[in-house]
Every structure is written in C-alpha cells, then in structure tokens.
Amino acid sequence: MKVFRGKIWAALGSLMDHAGAASNKASTAAVPDRALLTDIEAAIARCTDGGGGGSVGDDRHVHEILFLVSNAPGAITFLSRRITARLEAARAPATALRSLLLVHRLLRAGDRYFEQDFRGLWASHDLRVDAPRCACSCSPLAASGAGVNYVTASTVTATGACSFLHGYTAYLEERMQWVINQSGNLEPTRPSPQDHDDKPHPASSYDAAAAETLLFKLAMCQRLLDVAVQLLPDNNTSASAAARSAFGIVLRESFKVYDAFNEGIDVLLRSRSIGLLSKSLRVSAQEVLRKACAQTPELKEFYHKCKKNNVGKITDYPVVRVVTLAQASAIEIMPPVCEEDGREELGGAGVVVQENEGDAPFESKLETTISAVWVEFDDEDHQDGREVTGDDRSS
C-alpha cells in the first residue's frame, strides 16, 4: 500500500512539473522580444516626431506598427503605454496632436481584433487619449502673463493649436466608443444591458427593443457630431499638416455618422408605433428630435464653411436636412394607444384608426377584438351613398 501511494504522489508531482513548465513557456511566449519592442518604439517615434508628421506618407509607419504588433500578442499593451507616455510627456500642442493622430489612424487601419483590443486597453486606462498637458494656455491673456494687455503672434498661434488639440481629444474620447462594422461604416457600441424600471407593454416588446436600439444610435450620433462641429480649425491651426490630416479624417467620419443619423431620424419621423412604447422611450424620442432641431442647422452651417474654405479638398458633402419644430412637436402630441386592442385614438373624438402591418418601422403583430364580417351590397345601398357596416346588417 505504501508503494502504491508513493507511485501516486510521484505521478502527481510529475504532472505538476509539466504544468509548471507549460505555464512558464506560455508566459515567456506572451512577453514580446526586446528587439521587437525596440522596433515598435522606433516606429512610434517616426509617426509622432516633427519630421513631416501628419503627412500622407506616415501611413506606411502606421502599417509597420500594425505588422509588428501582430507578431506578438502582448505587444499591443506596450504600444498603448508608450503612446500614453508620449502624450503625457508632450508639452507642445503639435507633439501631442501627432500622438493623438497616430491613435486615430491605428483605430481605422487595424483589423477587428486589433480594434477590439485597442479599445479594451482604452477602457482599462492603459491607453489614455485625455493625457495632453500643453505648456501653453487656451487663454491668450493667461499665456502672455497677468496684467499684460498685448498678445504676440506666437501666442495666438499656440492658442489656436491648443484649442484644436483639446477639441480633437474630446472627439477621440467619443470615437473610442464606436467600431467599424463589416460594411465599413461607424457603429456605436452598446453598453451592458441594464434593468429598466419602466417596462414596455408585452404586446410591444419587439417595438421597444427596436426603438431603444434606434434611439441609442441617434443619441450617440448627436454626441459625436457635436464634438466634430467644434473642431473647425482656424487659419493658424490649418497651417499644421497634422491638424489638416486629423480634421480631414474627422470630417469624413462625420459624413458617415450623419448619413446614419439622417436615416434613423427618417425612421423615427415615419413611425406610427411610438404610442406603443414605454414613457421613457417616448421621452427619449422627444429629446432626440428637440436636439436635432438645434443641431441640424448648426451642422449645415458647419459643412457650408468647410466647403467654402475647401477644407481637406473634399467635394462630396452630404445634404443636411434640417429638422423642424413642427416635426418634433408631432411626436410630442402623438395620442396614446389603447392597451386593450392596440388601436390608436385620435384626439379623443372617438375615431379609431388601425395601422397596417409594415407601415411602422417597429413592426409587431397586434391582435384586435374586431372580427372580419362579410358584407353584401344591393342596389339600394349604393344609391343612397351609405356604406353598410356590420351593425347596419344586424339591425
């Protein structure tokens, strides 16, 4: 018996040794080679140093970084921390801007797995895009010294660059919450599902899920477009190649976001199922439309200025449709829906309108208590021009 127990313990010890060796081997494989890390850091320097940063030729350095990172799973963490360190060490707006531009280009050029890992590192704060701390101030008077009433040309230039840098930082913070889908369009990521106190009606649960998804997407579009509109560079900022490149990317992305927003607003305005939704979703729809009334004219003016100034030499601007107060009010005064049969009463006048399936963007099959009745018409019924209903036939 003692010999048997000894063999068991020997076997267990052997298994533990093998497991430990495999674990050490896996951990060693997860740590990138030092030479590879050196190559990654050198590529980061080429993208962010002042030698022509922001030019079209920098794309090859971005692809070089992606290639190097793809050869070592743990290298993306090193990449994120090195970019963050460069942002934190930057004191000139131009230096910080080139680092942010690198983050933006990596987001767009990387594959789906890289994008997912990159955004995950942003969520865990290994990658920080809110790190820039410029030596200059956004206030010209503060930059020129207390009590001094003059502003030098260099101060004005620094102020414009610093202002653009903070706006671009805010844009990237929002952009990190979007992914590029299979069709190449931007799509906002959904947060983890949470319980809602205001439960939708069981008959309209499908409508509620579709409406909630639509309203979330519209709200995210409005947030991203808000920060994009604030980024129009001035004459001083536009002299920077990195600023021109960054704004060109933002402008093109805003086109895709506006297309998705316009399509969603059209669905919302044509919907006849809003009355079936919970109160919180109806309130959300009203908030989206009220904000669109103020935002769409501003966005239209923004694109007009960009096109007039030939920013980025872009010609394919979208046609912005201005949402009016009348359209927003139509949702606000939409009458409630009877929960018994899913029919809609207009203005309390007793007139009942039954919507057809397919008319509403949020479709659901609604059962009613009205049964079908076959009605025959004779000549006398047609002569008096009166339509015969089921009640008339029974009487």
UniProtKB/TrEMBL annotation:
One of its GO terms (cellular component) is clathrin-coated vesicle. InterPro entries: ANTH_dom, ANTH_dom_sf, AP180-like, ENTH_VHS. Residues 58-118, 163-328 form the AP180 N-terminal homology (ANTH) domain. Pfam families: ANTH. Signal peptide: none annotated. PANTHER family: CLATHRIN ASSEMBLY PROTEIN, OS11G0244600 PROTEIN. Residues 184-204 are annotated as: Disordered. It comes from the Eukaryota. Gene3D superfamilies: 1.25.40.90, ANTH domain. This is AP180 N-terminal homology (ANTH) domain-containing protein. It comes from Hordeum vulgare subsp. vulgare (Domesticated barley). GO terms for molecular function: 1-phosphatidylinositol binding; clathrin heavy chain binding; phosphatidylinositol-4,5-bisphosphate binding; SNARE binding. The gene is LOC123451171. The lineage of its organism: Eukaryota, Viridiplantae, Streptophyta, Embryophyta, Tracheophyta. GO terms for biological process: clathrin coat assembly; clathrin-dependent endocytosis; vesicle budding from membrane.
